[in-house]
Amino acid sequence: MQARIAVLPGDGIGPEVTREAVACLEMVADLGGHAFRFQELPIGGAALDACGMPLPAVTLETCLASDAALLGAVGDPRHDGRPSHLKPEKGLLALRAGLGVYANLRPAFLHPALVRSSPLREEVVRGTDLVIVRELAGGLYFGEPRGLTPEVGTNTLAYSRPEVERIARVAFELARGRRRKVTSVDKANVLESSQLWRTVVGEVARDYPDVALDHLYVDACAMAIVTRPTSFDVVVTDNLFGDILSDEASVLTGSMGMLPSASLGGTVGLFEPVHGSAPDIAGRGVANPLGAILSAAMLLRHSLGLEAEARTLEEAVSLVLARGYGTPDLRCEKNTLGTRGMGEMVRNHLSRALLGIPA
Ligand code: NAD
Ligand code: IPM
Ligand code: MN
Prior knowledge:
Elements: E1 2-10, H1 14-32, E2 35-40, H2 44-51, H3 57-64, E3 68-73, H4 88-99, E4 103-109, H5 122-125, E5 129-135, E6 143-148, E7 153-156, H6 161-176, E8 181-186, H7 192-205, E9 212-217, H8 218-227, E10 234-237, H9 239-250, E11 262-264, E12 269-271, H10 290-302, H11 307-322, H12 339-354
Parallel strand pairs: 1-2, 1-3, 3-12, 5-10, 8-9, 8-10
Antiparallel strand pairs: 4-5, 4-11, 6-7, 11-12
This protein binds nicotinamide-adenine-dinucleotide, 3-isopropylmalic acid and manganese (II) ion.
Nicotinamide-adenine-dinucleotide (NAD) is lined by residues 13, 17, 73-75, 89, 92, 255-257, 272, 275-281, 287-288, 291, 329.
């Protein structure tokens, strides 16, 4: 097949991990007889430096004209004190809005080889396999009015019935292909937006009698995710709660560097690791590229319909981990690799699998 893929490396470790993910996609194309055309575009701090805007028009337009977009990370401490519209993060938020993506899938799967990478006890995390379905287009991130004066900072949390309904459907549909359990997370004991959220999720649930639904307050969920992670299957929640809970869930998987994501529901799918630009380790070649590589697998699956290739890439990652290899964040006892070394190791297994050579 032919596909146009927009590549937005961004800031900090973004370019380092994106390079490895793109090389995996190139291998899938070369060995699978596909023609992928990659186009690299600026976003975030890199775009602010290049042209004074966090999301140049050419970046959004090219993404909209592509089959999928792959992003690294945005965020640069040099731009931290700037007004909101001139922050690198604004580039990402404007891109999500411009693409119309509202459903952000963030799987947190613990590879069996990494049970000792998490600071949590092995018997607690073993078997973790959950997906956070984060509402991505509304809530506090986009609510109006918003603003900042020297005395008052304002943000608005509002959800409408259609916004809740469409994200709830994504969660129930996803659960049907998994363990048929949805946990809806809100703060309905305090917030009216959450009261509507809970009512609408309950109504949508009637169309899915084969899927079990429970509700948790976000504070209780924050505790349950680290005390009983294996009791979760699909977690559906709002924009801000989903942001926070997904970083927490990354701890179950061994590292922030492990989590991929897919943002769907709009014109073009956007795929990015959950982590940020990690300024503390940027430029050292030690960042874990697996979240980015697994995001590339989600791109193959969700935007290009290449399910077999997506699985092959995911299996290559699993094989590398099963052989005891890891980046420094995974705290493996031996076989520590850098970003490039890890990417090459994954591609080593990927090429064998694509060529039909037994592992
Ligand atoms: P972060 O995710 O960048 O880093 C948090 C911690 O996790 C750091 O110690 C970092 O070294 C580690 N880490 C993250 N990714 C890693 C990887 N692939 N391999 C190894 N270790 C990894 O979060 P932060 O420090 O709060 O934010 C830094 C910047 O990134 C900020 O500007 C923030 O706004 C931005 N950010 C962007 C995104 C995004 O682009 N999607 C997400 C989160 C944060
Ligand atoms: C994420 C990030 C972003 C968010 C920021 C950088 C805008 O934290 O993708 O999780 O809050 O959504
Ligand atoms: Mn986040």
